[in-house]
Here is the input.
Amino acid sequence: MEPRRRQETSTGISRPAVLSGELELVRQWAQVPSFDVEEQEVAFWSTHQLDGRLMAASIHRSDVRESTTITLRFDPRMLSRIKRIARRRYLNYQSMIKQWLSERMEQEMREG
Here is the structure.
């Protein structure tokens, strides 16, 4: 049976299901079928909508706490030189150290 897509208003004008509030909520990704052709997908989404919580849970948010804090001990003169170099480059010295480590890791990975 073809899903109901339009609703008659009090004025006799038909409105799409999207505007009439008849859309069925999709609360799990398993409820979304595989589509063979785009027309099937259009027909499905014209009568369904994603639940806001499912959509929010699907958005990747970069978590600032994805990094781990470590402690490094530097010779004070070495740290002073690192900070001086970072200031000349208008960088935070900790960010510069991370950049250096990242570049060196890439080099090591390439060289094997």
Q: What stands out?
A: The mean pLDDT is 81. DSSP finds five helices and four strands in the chain.
